[in-house]
Design goal:
With about 210 residues, the chain is mainly alpha-helical. Helix content is about 75%, strand content about 0%.
Amino acid sequence: MTLHNPFRGGINLIQCLLHPFNSFYAIKEEGKGSLAQAGLIVLVFFFAAVLKRQNTGYAFNYNDLSELNVWLIAAKTVLLFALWVVGNWAVATWMDGEGKAVQIIIVSAYAIVPYVTAVILSTLLSNVLLAEEGVFLQYMTVVATLWSGMLMLIGLQTIHDYGFVRNLQSLALTLAAMGIIVFLGVLFYTLFQQAYVFIYTVYNELLFRL
């Protein structure tokens, strides 16, 4: 009996970071890329954020370690990633982008690898560096963020078959779409909460009168 490998079809991440055009083209045209691999990257993104908050060196950590809110960190990582994917998929559908939702997930996950790696490395190094050497950690984070941003630009431009300007427009609209989704989510939650309070109040009033 042959077991199915969920990571089959995944791309060598080192090759993806160094040769993004070829790697992202393979995702689009050859069906390369593993959804399981992308999910693992997002999961590591979440744990890296937790690690950074709780285990950054004393000289660089200004958080109250006793007030860890895992749900808030999940919102800043996993939920933010999901919002990005949904927003970009919606915009791409409107702007005739060729990328599929699965491809957007894979490309976006692969693109954040430099940033996630920098978060982990900076957290570990913060425990051995002096406060005066903290600027090195900042430089590393900035470089990794720019690297991830470049990979995101190349990846989405490749799978959607956009030109450079149209791709920038798509990314700007993606951010706008994310804001709209958050606004509608908060609005729905507020309306639901108000409806619940109203129904609960009426229910208690009826019980009191009966």
